[in-house]
UniProtKB/TrEMBL annotation:
Residues annotated for 5-amino-6-(D-ribitylamino)uracil binding in this entry: Y28, A59, Y60, E61, C84, V85, V86
InterPro entries documented for this protein: LS (IPR034964), LS/RS (IPR002180), LS/RS_sf (IPR036467)
Enzyme class of the recorded protein, top EC level: transferase
Family the UniProt entry places it in: Belongs to the DMRL synthase family.
Underlying gene: ribH
Name of the featured protein: 6,7-dimethyl-8-ribityllumazine synthase
HAMAP family for this protein: Lumazine_synth (MF_00178)
Pathway connected to this protein: Cofactor biosynthesis; riboflavin biosynthesis; riboflavin from 2-hydroxy-3-oxobutyl phosphate and 5-amino-6-(D-ribitylamino)uracil: step 1/2
Record keywords: Riboflavin biosynthesis, Transferase
Gene3D superfamilies: Lumazine/riboflavin synthase
Recorded superkingdom: Bacteria
NCBIfam families with a match to the protein in the record: lumazine-synth (TIGR00114)
PANTHER family: 6,7-DIMETHYL-8-RIBITYLLUMAZINE SYNTHASE, 6,7-DIMETHYL-8-RIBITYLLUMAZINE SYNTHASE DMRL SYNTHASE LUMAZINE SYNTHASE
Catalytic activity: (2S)-2-hydroxy-3-oxobutyl phosphate + 5-amino-6-(D-ribitylamino)uracil = 6,7-dimethyl-8-(1-D-ribityl)lumazine + phosphate + 2 H2O + H(+)
Length: 160
């Protein structure tokens, strides 16, 4: 299924108190990440979530920031990681994409957190724009919906 064919995500019903979400952004491609941010925030507002956003230098720092947040004093019910990596002329792209995605999953599994991820790994800016547009399918909204679904699941299973 391509992005153009994707169904628009829906906000799930969240039992209990409105969730607290930390949005971790790697705004190297600011316009792309801002587009995903707006869509993610709109999705999170549908369930009354409170959202705190932080920016990091780049995609490589996303898993590090997630782990730092877990060491902090503030409690979050879920996390959304947003970023974009565009393929260049070297293999740097492959290392950053693999390391960042693996790192995010490793932290999520190790600490049992609710994480939605929209780290775009694309060949062109046009592909990123198609996935972060103001209208239609948006990976930021999908990541927020995924995070909310994990929160709903954790609460139903008493894993909070």
């Amino acid at each position: 299924m391509s992005t153009a064919d994707a169904t628009l995500p829906e906000a799930p019903e969240i039992p209990g108190a409105a969730p607290r979400i930390l949005l971790i952004r790697a705004p190297y491609y600011r316009g792309i990440v801002d587009g995903m941010t707006h869509a993610a925030e709109a999705m999170l507002r549908k369930v009354g979530a409170s959202v705190q956003a932080i920016d990091v230098a780049g995609a490589y720092e996303l898993p590090q920031a997630l782990r730092i947040a877990l060491r902090g004093r503030e409690h979050f019910d879920g996390f959304v990681a947003l970023g974009c990596v565009v393929r260049g002329e070297t293999d740097h792209y492959d290392y950053i994409c693999d390391t960042a995605m693996h790192g995010l999953m490793q932290v999520a599994l190790q600490y049992g957190i609710c994480l939605g991820t929209a780290l775009l790994t694309v060949d062109t800016i046009m592909q990123a724009e198609a996935r972060s547009a103001e209208t239609g399918p948006n990976k930021g909204a999908e990541a927020a919906a995924a995070c909310l679904k994990q929160i709903a699941l954790a609460r139903r299973l008493g894993a909070t």
